[in-house]
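Progress against Task 2.4 (sequence-to-structure conversion) is shown through the following example record, which the project officer requested during the mid-term review.
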Amino acid sequence: MAEKSDDIWIGFDLGGTKMLTVAYDSQYNVLGRRRRKTRGREGSDSGIARIGSTIERLLGENDLDAKRIRGIGIGCPGPIDLDNGRILTTPNLGWDDVDIQKFLEKKFDCPVVVLNDVDAGLYGEYQFGAAKGSRCAVGIFPGTGVGGACVYEGTILQGAGVSCMEIGHTRISSGSRSSGIELPGTLEAEASRLSIAAEAAKAAFRGDAPALAKDAGTDLADIRSGALADSINAGDKVVRRLVEEASESIGISVVNIIHLLCPDTIVLGGGLVEAMEELIIGTVTKTARKNVMSVYKDRFKVVAAKLGDDAGVKGAAAWARRKIEA
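Structure tokens generated for the chain above:
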């Protein structure tokens, strides 16, 4: 089908705490955007209805005709059944076996492509941001968990009918901490924002992080990326060391990835990296260069994501367009 100048491409990023949708024209100019809280704990039925109504509000608020929608791309957390457009499981939302593609196709009468949210974010960075022009780009996004993705020669690296690159659930230490699966010592257990916050809360409770205790307290819900950054800037050395240790763990994962794939670009993204870009990028780079085989030492760069929240929605829309127009 020939491209129409009035085509609308919808990108959607489903997060654990927020959802964001953006409408684009065929040149990826923004036609409108809508953000809402996810409220995932209300259940998957309520959740997918909320996704649908968020897109409807986006269209209504920006006077966009649903009949112009050429396709919808939606990035969702956790493993994805790519053949059927289903969310298999989302540990941070508590959703299992959610048929999001069928729901959205019926509601908006257009093709829908479902993919992993980190895949969408990295594809956005590959097409429009920090990884543009890379032959092989790998993304690591530490947050509540640690997400991973790879774009190889322009294509998202995916399994046979299922998403892959679950970097957060690869083992990188002999530690006993768990990340919600049986395997201990994973990157997610060692380097997620949640793990850092848990250790920081202990330090604040013991009196070893006075600035954090004063500004954020010891409640995990209040120890977000910005609170950790403010604590470090205020002189909490123990919190700085926690972030450095997490970054060193990410650096070891980067070494493993380089030895497997030799990517030319490693993209680090998410709120934690945005809040402490220099500290995290510097520590990851130093750790990776120190430990990687010498032949690979100068063949990669570690960079921060550039697109922020727009990476996932723009990447989802662009990947959907690629698949629909193929």
